[in-house]
Amino acid sequence: xxxxxxxxxxxxxxxxxxxxxxxxxxxxxxxxxxxxxxxxxxxxxxxxxxxxxxxxxxxxxxxxxxxxxxxxxxxxxxxxxxxxxxxxxxxxxxxxxxxxxxxxxxxxxxxxxxxxxxxxxxxxxxxxxxxxxxxxxxxxxxxxxxxxxxxxxxxxxxxxxxxxxxxxxxxxxxxxxxxxxx
Length: 182
Prior knowledge:
two-stranded antiparallel sheet; 21% helix
């Protein structure tokens, strides 16, 4: 299965580089158009949407992202077509994210754990990953990211949230991840 990660990176970093939030940690409720998916972000997000091949399947990827202090924060979602293998697509999305952040793989023990929220599908690929990597500039960065999925009728909505920072504040990623609700 082939994933075109450059489109994902362009969506994520395009939204994040255009964002400017003030003050830091100004939490607000956010929602995606056409979905009951809700979460909280620590700053006013920029939004973008574009069609991308995710795990080899063309999807409409919706992205919200902003900067909070020195952290880049993003929340993304895509609805898969009926019958798509959500686990395979989510695994490909996770690998693309790790590759783009230049995270050393395979992951070390303790860098990966199951991530489950109420209402989320119990998939083995629903994960939380915390790992050091590099920005495109070569600067070191830490990543704290989650992937999950929820059912929407006969289709599945994938959800991905991520925080990038030199030193990630535990409260920042914990509040973001725990706020995600289908």
